[in-house]
Amino acid sequence: MKAGADIATDMETTGGRQDTKEVILDAAEKLFAEKTYSAVSLRELTQAAGVNLAAVNYHFGSKDALLIALFRRGAIELNRARARLLREAEERAGGGTPPVREIVAALVLPAIRYSFTSTRLALYNQFVAFARGDGPAEAREMLDKEVGHLQRFALSLARALPHLPQHEVYWRLHFAMGVQHSLYTDMKRLETLSGGLCQLDDLEAVAARVIDYVTAGLEAPYTAKG
Amino acid sequence: MKAGADIATDMETTGGRQDTKEVILDAAEKLFAEKTYSAVSLRELTQAAGVNLAAVNYHFGSKDALLIALFRRGAIELNRARARLLREAEERAGGGTPPVREIVAALVLPAIRYSFTSTRLALYNQFVAFARGDGPAEAREMLDKEVGHLQRFALSLARALPHLPQHEVYWRLHFAMGVQHSLYTDMKRLETLSGGLCQLDDLEAVAARVIDYVTAGLEAPYTAKG
DNA sequence: CATTGACTTAAACGCTTGTTTGAAATTAGC
DNA sequence: GCTAATTTCAAACAAGCGTTTAAGTCAATG
């Protein structure tokens, strides 16, 4: 009676439309980002997706499992894009260390790009923070695995900024993630603050802005104390 | 039967202990930040606070009203501290424009300080983002009023960075808020990433770090496109 | 000492939640 | 074109939610 909700990570295998699952994921991504995981009811979600109430439990097993599947889809895609850009930058440097600005671009561009090119994964960052306290334990474990991917960037940055102690590199990378985060969080506040002057419309311009800012922060002089 | 939950903003007036309200606010602040507004039930909250289930509705009127009261308490305190530091910096500049670094310090220090000195308001920033989509409409309106306080900083920064177009100042101020935000969000990830090397322990060191980073970002060269 | 008011308490309220069910509809394999 | 597996559907489920109620406690007041 029950369908295996775990195994079916593959796509075209079952000949079936595989449509409903994607529709649900897209709607969940949108709503979870707009509100909160626990603030979105399955009735609201399924209605927005145009599917039956029971569809979520049938295809994913539970609401929690839906969140995990959603997070997995987003994380895999984002990390893959980041890793690719970083690898390309390293190859461009011919075995040497790429300049800070290019490492930053590899870190930041995929997230910005996805946030523009629409729906899927668009608001990935926004629920990372909440998943930590709100979501199921399995989601939290996945977040920790996420850290592994950031390590590559920490390493690359440490090599490009040899005058900085290691822990300072970690801190500044952390701040960089915060800046990235701000692209999905509180954009409404920025729009209000600027009287509509600032908006997420021109991808290139926004990307350049973020990269300028983050690069400057990473390259800031180190006024050490402790 | 019902007590006025609106008027009693004063403190020592009623002779009564005024204890329960504060206990509830403190517990709510902690839990709402750890999880999410809608993920914390009143039963969980009142049990953590050690008060009766009905206490929230009696003292605040509703769960929504509790959130608003909580936000108000935090926002007032934080904005007051920021405004005072900015005013002092401006006085120190003798009517002129304070250096960027001092404006940044005025913006950033209060939040960092509160995050160390404990409980009250400690996690203020963390629920700002969520309140926008999750919380009641009244909370969202308060967030918009919040913007007014940031305008003072935008103005001051624009004067200190006259070569930047106005909208760029807004963007960079927005990023600065994101960096600040990262102090409350994803700290667990930073600890994991750094293998425990980076932690929120030394206030002065963390403050210097944040100010360095944000100042450098604000003063970054402007590579304009659009 | 009785009375008033603010506060606390346990129990219950109606309602929404995530989930399950069993039958109907759809699709694939032969 | 039949069979069997898969997917959809409306209805119901128990559990948990925010909220209300009415009786209870306690301190201060007249």
TrEMBL record, chains A, B:
SUPFAM superfamilies: Homeodomain-like, Tetracyclin repressor-like, C-terminal domain. Residues 41-60 bind DNA. Keywords: DNA-binding. Pfam families: TetR_C_30 (PF17939), TetR_N (PF00440). The keyword DNA-binding applies. InterPro entries: Homeodomain-like_sf, HTH-type_TetR-like_transc_reg, HTH_TetR, PsrA_TetR_C, Tet_transcr_reg_TetR-rel_C_sf. This is HTH tetR-type domain-containing protein.
